[in-house]
């Protein structure tokens, strides 16, 4: 019997970790590829498990740190809870454009720093009791999802993503239950739909007063490549932070946004269906709000009245997600409200026809939302796009056809799937891949489709006709756009899964399975387009939180700091090529809407192929006890040639009998999660024995400040300070302390100073000898290279007075600070322990935990990678880590310990240690 997938994955990971010490696995700017261990292309369970994790990486708000999913994500944009309830105003840097919001949406913050809302003062005053019930002058808009690798909460992609993830759960709930992922998907759906509830403001009668559909401004946000925890509210100062203002955009009767409100209504309606049997009170609240938002959308929808049915009641987006119109969102909400209420009026809102008006050849005009795509009953429509954030017709017809059983609706639903999967007979004959269809089913004349009925089982017997087909790559991948090709492909796959469920016809399900196998690594590039999947995958998603750069650069660190588990990157082009580089957003963008159809597609594929008793069941398994935060600090995810956390590098110059010039670089490279430090200090230790030998004392030592990067970068608004010498011991050791108080920064700060002997007033000589100075030994010269500095643990660093880096002269090392969250992991019931500083301080009576190399109380893959690096002298373990790493109890650390730990992790050893025989 084959090893379970997890064991094969663990072994491959550990072996790759061994290779990593010689820099043989991760070429810069390339995917992780292990040619000797190709992916399992059919593990839809694992792919779905990982895909849900992406939404945890994109959570926003003041409760992110409490959910227990990722240690490397923390609370962010907490000031979204205190957005001033005032008309939008500029703080400088740009002029508010009163005409930029569609539908007279008010001022926009397309340029410069803006605060407030797009509502007028008159509207705010008239509705203050509903908008600001506690009277604090602010609105609370914490929560929700960041849109992508950026940090704006955009309306349309947000509601599309929430409704589509919910749709996939509604259709294939059994897949989530069987894989143990039900709790995780429900947590995600609650998180985002709770935000929609919070963003909806009702009056005393339950009618919508306002709905906030966007927080943040794309043009401002995109200026800063930084983790969301570091994007703070304030005036931007040098590189101290990624400071932005986050204005809020509301749909009101004054500033309508009917596309946005309808999208949110659809998501909340689906959420009702998903929770009505397990949490009826919560579900009912979702339905009540969905009904109110839909009514408000209908009320505020406004057409200019020309022949193109142009709508001028659409929301503002700053040019990032410009909506074409709102008819599809209205239809998307309406069809789901029918499923919630069984009120056919909602279906009529979509498909109604005025039979009292007859045009040419007896055609009647459509009056429902369908009129935007089909003018009258003498015509029909071929959907050449696919279900996506701006065009949800694909989803509308997928849910409409089984209700109406009208030929028109089944024709439109099926035609799009044929278009995506098929080729002409001539092209299919020359293709190197399977082509499921070469003809379109013929449902009849256009003017007969609108009121003739057909059932799903009758479709197979229809005649066939020629038609159009989407472009395919040489290896058979269907591509509607090179920009994010995989998102469209998987959304089509979700529609194929729903078609298979409704009809029992697996034609398009087979096609979707082939496409998903391509996405999961069976492609010319040789790796999956889902980050973290199996052994071979893209590693450079365009995502600020995963990158966690300390220099605001997309190019570093490389590899990225964190594994963005489950993110579906943009995907290949029509030549089967993919460019795995962070800055290339065409190929490597990751967004909420990319993963939305992806999740539903995978759930459907598991249902039809991977579930118990199905043909690929033996290839499907979730990763047991999967911890999303593992490997965020070591292994593939960080170049351990430089530490993380707070650390120090330093150099020397101008060394002579008068003293020494010292350069200290303090690095804030906290990553679990990244955070600013309000009180950060370093100490340089020196000894004055050479001075006391000639009768001098510490009063003859002085300092000279040569350069303070903090002061230079903030135009003297903040600066570091240097202390007088402080006595450390009675052996002539003193230290100079440099403090960065209230200098909140992420990254590094340089401080250069001279440590000097004053001229002797009698001899006019100076005397200085650095050779006996504790902190001197690791210094390298920067006289020829101003950037030169070496890591040193002999210059210690402190946060809020606690030692976090280095070793003091008496041997004291940092203590490990841990926070334990007693919440369930989304995919396993475990306790998450987060280590926030490097190093540990132990006592003799502590019990050894063999294999726990990083001293975090757990034995896992991270320890194995650390041990491999310690064996190859890439890193140095502290005392407790060395004792725990001695897995063969030989008294020394070597390759045998690494092998024993590997065997233990893949279940070939039952316990640790394994003493040498």
Mean pLDDT, to the nearest integer, reads: 88
Quick one: CATH class of the domain at 57-302? Mainly Alpha
Count of helical regions: 26
Q: Which bin fits the share of residues in helices?
A: 25-40%
Strand content: 5-15%
Instruction: State the total count of DSSP E strands.
Output: 23
Structural class per helix/strand content?
Answer: alpha+beta
Poorly predicted sequence stretches spanning 5 or more consecutive residues: 1-29, 93-107, 235-240, 631-640, 817-846
Overall CATH architecture of the domain at 57-302: Alpha/alpha barrel
Approximate shape: globular
Biggest sheet record:
6 strands, mixed
User: What is the alpha-carbon Rg in Å?
Assistant: 31 Å
Distance between the termini: 30 Å
Oligomer: single chain
CATH topology of the domain at 57-302: Glycosyltransferase
Descriptive terms for the model:
globular, alpha+beta, 917 residues, six-stranded antiparallel sheet, Type 1 dockerin domain, Immunoglobulin-like
Write the layout of secondary structure elements.
Layout: H1 5-20, H2 44-57, E1 83-84, E2 89-90, E3 114-115, H3 121-126, H4 128-131, E4 138-139, H5 155-171, H6 173-178, H7 182-198, E5 200-202, E6 208-215, H8 218-221, E7 248-251, H9 258-275, H10 280-300, H11 327-341, H12 345-351, H13 393-404, H14 407-421, H15 425-430, E8 440-441, H16 446-449, E9 464-465, H17 485-503, H18 507-519, H19 544-547, H20 585-588, H21 592-610, E10 645-656, E11 659-669, E12 679-687, H22 689-692, E13 701-708, H23 709-713, E14 721-722, E15 726-727, E16 733-741, E17 747-757, E18 780-781, E19 790-791, E20 795-799, E21 802-805, E22 818-821, E23 832-835, H24 861-871, H25 879-885, H26 895-905
Parallel strand pairs: 10-18
Antiparallel strand pairs: 1-4, 2-3, 5-6, 6-7, 8-9, 10-11, 10-19, 11-17, 12-16, 12-20, 13-17, 14-16, 15-16, 20-21, 22-23
Helix pairs in contact: 1-24, 2-21, 5-7, 5-9, 5-21, 7-9, 9-10, 9-11, 10-11, 11-12, 11-13, 13-14, 13-17, 14-17, 17-18, 17-21, 18-21, 24-26
């Amino acid at each position: 019997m084959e090893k379970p997938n997890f064991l094969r994955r663990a072994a491959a990971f550990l072996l790759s970790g061994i290779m990593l010490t010689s820099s043989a696995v991760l070429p810069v700017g390339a995917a992780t590829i292990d040619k000797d261990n190709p992916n399992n292309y059919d593990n839809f369970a694992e792919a779905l498990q990982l895909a849900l994790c992406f939404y945890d990486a994109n959570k926003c708000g003041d409760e992110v740190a409490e959910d227990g999913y990722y240690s490397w994500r923390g609370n962010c944009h907490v000031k979204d809870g205190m957005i001033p309830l005032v008309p939008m105003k500029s703080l400088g840097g740009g002029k508010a454009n009163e005409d930029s919001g569609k539908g007279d949406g008010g001022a926009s913050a397309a340029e410069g720093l803006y605060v407030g809302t797009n509502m007028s003062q008159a509207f705010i005053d008239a509705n203050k009791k509903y908008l600001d019930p506690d009277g604090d002058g602010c609105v609370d808009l914490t929560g929700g999802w960041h849109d992508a690798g950026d940090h704006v909460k955009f309306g349309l992609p947000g509601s599309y993503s929430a409704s589509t993830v919910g749709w996939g759960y509604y259709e294939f709930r059994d897949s989530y239950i069987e894989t143990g992922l039900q709790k995780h998907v429900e947590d995600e759906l609650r998180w985002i739909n709770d935000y929609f509830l919070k963003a909806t403001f009702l009056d005393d009668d339950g009618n919508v007063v306002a709905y906030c559909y966007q927080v943040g401004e794309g043009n401002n946000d995109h200026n800063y490549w930084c983790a969301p925890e570091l994007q703070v509210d304030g005036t931007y100062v040098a590189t101290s932070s990624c400071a932005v203002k986050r204005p809020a955009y509301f749909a009101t009767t004054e500033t309508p946004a009917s596309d946005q409100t309808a999208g949110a209504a659809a998501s909340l309606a689906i959420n009702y269906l998903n929770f009505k049997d397990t949490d009826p009170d919560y579900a009912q609240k979702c339905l009540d709000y969905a009904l109110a938002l839909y009514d408000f959308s209908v009320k505020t929808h406004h057409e200019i009245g020309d022949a193109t049915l142009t709508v001028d009641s659409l929301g503002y987006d700053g040019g990032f997600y410009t909506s074409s119109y709102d008819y599809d969102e209205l239809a998307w909400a309406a069809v789901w409200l029918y499923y919630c209420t069984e009120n056919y009026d909602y279906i009529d809102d979509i498909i109604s026809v005025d039979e009292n008006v007859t045009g040419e050849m007896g055609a009647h005009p459509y009056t429902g939302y369908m009129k935007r795509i089909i003018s009258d009953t003498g015509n029909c429509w071929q959907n050449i796009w696919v279900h996506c954030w701006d065009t949800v017709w694909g989803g509308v017809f997928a849910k409409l056809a089984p209700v109406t059983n009208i030929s028109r609706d089944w024709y439109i639903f099926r035609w799009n799937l044929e278009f995506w999967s098929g080729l002409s007979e001539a092209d299919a004959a020359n293709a190197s891949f399977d082509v499921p269809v070469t003809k379109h089913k013929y449902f009849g004349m256009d003017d007969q489709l609108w009121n003739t009925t057909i059932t799903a089982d009758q479709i197979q017997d229809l005649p066939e006709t020629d038609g159009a087909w989407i472009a395919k790559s040489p290896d058979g991948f269907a591509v509607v756009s090179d920009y994010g090709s995989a998102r469209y492909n998987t959304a089509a796959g979700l529609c194929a899964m729903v078609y298979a469920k409704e009809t029992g016809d697996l034609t398009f399900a087979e096609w979707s399975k082939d496409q998903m196998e391509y996405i999961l690594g069976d492609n010319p590039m040789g790796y999956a387009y889902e980050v973290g999947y199996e052994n071979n995958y893209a590693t450079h998603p365009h995502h600020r939180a995963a990158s966690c750069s300390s220099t605001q650069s997309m190019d570093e660190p490389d590899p990225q700091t964190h594994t963005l588990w489950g993110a579906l990157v943009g995907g290949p082009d029509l030549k089967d090529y993919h460019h795995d580089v962070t800055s290339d957003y065409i190929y490597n963008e990751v967004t909420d809407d990319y993963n939305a159809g992806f999740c539903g597609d995978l759930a459907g594929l598991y249902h039809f192929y991977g579930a118990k008793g199905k043909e690929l069941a033996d290839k499907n398994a979730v990763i047991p006890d999967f911890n999303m935060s593992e490997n965020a600090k070591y292994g593939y995810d960080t170049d351990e040639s430089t530490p993380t956390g707070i650390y120090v590098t330093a150099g020397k110059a101008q060394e002579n009998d008068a003293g020494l010039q010292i350069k200290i670089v303090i690095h804030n490279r906290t990553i679990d999660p990244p955070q600013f430090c309000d009180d950060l200090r370093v100490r340089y230790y020196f000894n004055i024995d050479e001075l006391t030998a000639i009768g001098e004392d510490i009063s003859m030592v002085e300092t000279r400040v040569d350069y303070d990067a903090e002061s230079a970068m903030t135009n003297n608004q903040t600066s570091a300070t240097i202390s007088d010498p402080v006595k450390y011991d009675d052996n002539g050791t003193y230290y100079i302390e440099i403090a960065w108080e209230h200098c909140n920064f992420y990254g590094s700060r340089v401080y250069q100073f001279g440590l000097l002997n004053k001229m002797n007033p009698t001899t006019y000589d100076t005397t200085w000898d650095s050779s006996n100075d504790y902190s001197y030994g690791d210094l390298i010269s920067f006289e020829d290279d101003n950037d030169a500095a070496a890591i040193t643990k002999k210059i210690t660093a402190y946060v809020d007075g606690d030692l976090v880096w280095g070793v003091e002269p008496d041997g004291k090392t940092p203590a490990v600070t841990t926070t334990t969250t007693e919440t369930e992991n989304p995919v396993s019931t475990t306790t998450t322990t987060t280590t926030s500083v490097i190093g540990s301080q132990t006592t003799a009576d502590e019990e050894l935990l063999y294999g726990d190399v990083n001293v975090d109380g757990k034995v896992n893959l991270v320890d194995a990678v650390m041990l491999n690096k310690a064996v190859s002298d890439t890193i140095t373990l502290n005392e407790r880590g060395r004792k725990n790493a001695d897995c063969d109890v030989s008294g020394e650390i070597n390759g045998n310990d690494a092998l024993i730990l590997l065997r233990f992790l893949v279940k070939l050893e039952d316990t640790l240690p394994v003493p040498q025989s």
